[in-house]
Structure formats: structure tokens, C-alpha cells
Amino acid sequence: MGINYAEKIPNNVDLSDNRTLQRALERWQPQYQAWWRKLGPEGLMDNDVYLRTATSVDAKGWASYGMVKMPDYRWGIFLAEPVADRRIGFGDHRGEPAWQEVPGEHRATLRRLIVTQGDTEPASVEQQRRLGLCCPSLYDLRNLLQVNVEEGRHLWAMVYLLHAHFGRDGREEAEELLERHSGDPDKPRILGTFNEPIDDWLSFFCFTFFTDRDGKFQLMSLAESGFDPLSRTCRFMLTEEAHHMFVGDTGIGRIIKRTAEVIAELGTDDTVRLRDHGVIDLPLLQRYVNFWFSSSLDLFGNDISTNAANYFANGIKGRPDEGRFEDHDCANALYGVERPAADGKGLETEDVPLRNAMNAVTRSAYIKDCEIGVKRWNRLLRRAGIDAEITLPSPRFRRTIGPWAGLHFDPVGKAMTAAEWNGRHDEFLPSEGDRAYVTSLMRRVVDPGKIAGWIAPPDRGVNAQPLDYEYVRL
Ligand SMILES: [Fe+2]
Ligand SMILES: [Fe+2]
How many domains does the chain have? Predict the structure, then answer.
């Protein structure tokens, strides 16, 4: 199914057959563009950028590359191909035909889920808007902007669903998606992580590794939804999301590679000496990992959740890769969830109805996925002969949601008193000094082929272009 680019809003949903919907979306479009110009990547609206755009949703056509000025990017509505006779795959409605329209009784729930997902997309663009002013290379700048335009498209994906299936409420929600802003004290974004500033590239790489990966798991769960338009939308978004995590994964890998080179050169991993040489020492990287991993874990919600149970029971939101599981009903199964022990010391495992533990199930799949990337980074260190490792902190560390919220644990999960925590906080999380140091490294490098001193060059360019290709014309 090709994408119709002749229309104002490129789409593969036959938008022109529904004039009312088309007009409503065409009214939202200039508001979106005004938002993009105001809160999209700063200082880069008039430059040509080497971006990929989807021209069809199949494997061949979805990534075609060319020079585009970002405000002219063809944001559109692309749904993955329908699956013939698709059925709901889990919960109480299992085996019934998937819904093409929103069932009345699930309307409020689905709207809330779509709005919450939609809100994260422009939020991340807002969080990242100043990174172009301190990029380590043109290659990285281009990747940032690719991520940004695709998050913009993900907003379009959710706004389409709101407009097409939720009537007037949906149109109002679509407007509000452009009215809340990341970090705005009066109208913040819905989820905490999406109000954290991302002013340096180390945070950006951590965000794309850890927080975009949360996005991947949310999209995988929604791709299982019995509401078929949502499923199809999320399936196509997942193809784009993979690149965002690639940016984070390779970004941190390249930082590690560069640091390892300097450790070998100097024959020491002394933090002060490494900082004198302008690279990111591994303990500092670890503190950023601790920060973003723990923040992202909160995005999965409470370990025990009646909402999650209802989503599952009603066929609204499944588990990532639902097809891999044997039991798609889960009404009688139990799942062990860790919580603080009743005597106040240590922890215990409580068996809860599996449906209520779906957030914990998804979170544990997410943690496994994070571990794969961390292993790759540690392989780089081992190969460089460095006896150090990056580790994921314990899921109990620095949580604000779930059974561990408000309690204090060190990164290996050992309980601490509040006083101990306050005294040792800077060992675990980026300190003022760390942040100031990282900020001092953030100097803009934009000569084609040149790269900042704190990060190694990538293994290869974008779409088989050379590394010194002019990915952004400044
Ligand atoms: Fe996204
Ligand atoms: Fe993303």
C-alpha cells in the first residue's frame, strides 16, 4: 500500500474519502507546524537535513533518504498493513474479531492511553530542542533531527486516532497535546521523565537508549490491542523507534570506545586525569545510566495494577509479543512481585493474580532488553583490556512508583536510611559537578567528518554515505 503524497497530509488511510476528517486534520496541521517552528530543534529550521521519509509501509519503501528542510518534512499518517480477519489475541474477548471502531465501554480508557502515548512524542522533541547547538558531529546532528521528526510523526499517528475515532473529545485532546510543554510548571507533560531537561548529549544517548526503549515496549503492548487501528499504527511506529534506540546504543558505545582509548593512552583510569583529557569517565557514565534507567522504570506504572488488569481483560493492551506466551487468558495464573517484607526488613515475594502484574511483566522484559545493550558496552571494555563494567542499577533504586517508592536503596539494591542516602547521593547519581563537567564538553562540532573529543566516530555513515558527508547544510 503506497502512501499518497499528493495530498496536504501524506497518508495511507484514504483520508480524502472522509472529507470531514480530512478537513479537521488540515485545521490541526498549521497548529502543529507552528508548534514545530517554536519548540522544535532550535536554530535549524532553514537548513537542509539528510532525512529519511516513509514512502510506503513495506520493508522496501519506508525509508527513502534525501535533503529536506525540517518544516517541509512530510509528516503523515501511516498505518501498517491490515492483517486479514485479525482477532483479539488475549483476555476475555480472545478470539473475537478485532474492533475497527472504538467500543463505547472502552472509549475513555482507550482515549487516555492514546493521549498518554501521544504526549510523550512532542515532549521529547521539546526536551531535545537545544542539542543541535552543541552537537559532537554533523552525523550526530542528523541522527538527532531524524529522531525529532519521527517523534513529530508519532504525534501525528496518535492525533489521527484521536480525530478519526474520538469525535470532539479527540479533537480537543489533539489541541492539548500542543498546549502542554515539557517542564512547563503550569502545563507540564503527563509523565515525569518527559519533563526532565535533556541539555547534553550524554543525557540524550541515555534517553534514546532507556526511555525510547520504554516507548518500544509500550508500543509493543499497544500493537497487541484489540482496537485494530491502534495496533496498526503502533506496528509502523515500531519500525521507526528502532532507529532511536540504535542512536542511544551506539552513542554510549562510542563514548565508551573513546574513553577506553584515552585510558589506554594514559595508562590510568584516574578520573581527574581523564577529565583533563576531555573524556567521560566510566563512573560518571554509570551515574547517568543509574539516573535514566531508574526514571524509565517508573514509566511502566505500578507493579500491581487494577488498570493493567482491566486493559488485559478487556483486550485493550496486551503483553509485548503476546504471541510468545502460551496462556493468553491469564485469569488463573499468579506472578511473583517483590515488595518490602512485612517486618520492615528485607524483601519478600508476593504472588499476585497475573493480570494485575502485567506492568511488572512488561518491565521485566524491558530490563532484559536493556541488559543486551549493556553487555555489548561491556564487551567493548573487555576488548580494550579494561577491567570495569557498566551495570544496571537494581529495580529498587530511586523509584517513585511501585512498592519501592519513597524508600532508599543503593544501586545494588541494598536498603539505606534516608540519612545515608542523603550523604551518598552523589556517588549514585549525576552530581552538580558531573553535570557541569559534561556541559563543558558540549561544544558544537559541525565540520564534515570532524568529531568532538569525547566520543569515537561511528563505524559507518547513514545510508552508506561516507562519514564526512555533509549530513546537515549549515
Ligand atoms: Fe516516538
Ligand atoms: Fe522514539
Answer: 1
Per the confidence metrics, is the pTM higher than 0.85? yes
Q: How many whole angstroms from 223 Cα to the centroid of ligand 2?
A: 15
Q: Tell me the per-residue pLDDT of 58-88, one tens digit each, with 9 for 90 and over.
A: 766 667 899 999 999 999 999 999 999 999 9
pLDDT of residue 467: 96
Q: Which ligand is nearest to the CA of 211?
A: 2
10 CA → ligand 1 middle, Å: 18
Q: Record the cell numbers describing residue 418, joined without a space.
A: 534516608
Residue 35 is part of which domain span? 15-301+365-473
The pLDDT value given to residue 454: 98
Angle subtended by helix axes 138-165 and 107-127, to nearest 10: 160
What pLDDT score was predicted for residue 202? 98
Does residue 310 lie in a domain region? no
Ligand 2 center to residue 233 CA distance, Å? Answer: 14
Quote the distance between the C-alpha of residue 111 and its chain's center: 20
> Residue 48: inside a domain, yes or no?
yes
Stretches where the chain sits below pLDDT 50 are none
Whole-number Å distance, alpha carbon 299 to ligand 2 midpoint, is 14
Nearest to 322 by CA among 231, 242, 436: 231
Q: Specify whether the CB–CB gap between 392 and 370 falls below 8 A.
A: yes
- On whether residue 411 sits in a domain, the answer given is yes
Ligand nearest to the CA of 144: 2
**CATH at residue 450:** 1.10.620.20
Q: How many A from CA of 238 to the centre of ligand 2? A: 9
Query: Ligand 2 center to residue 156 CA distance, Å?
Result: 13
- 349 belongs to a structural domain: no
| Residue-by-residue DSSP string for 97-108 | BPBSS--GGGHH
Predicted confidence at residue 4, as pLDDT, reads 75
Residue ranges with CB less than 5 Å from ion ligand 2: 212, 215, 241, 244
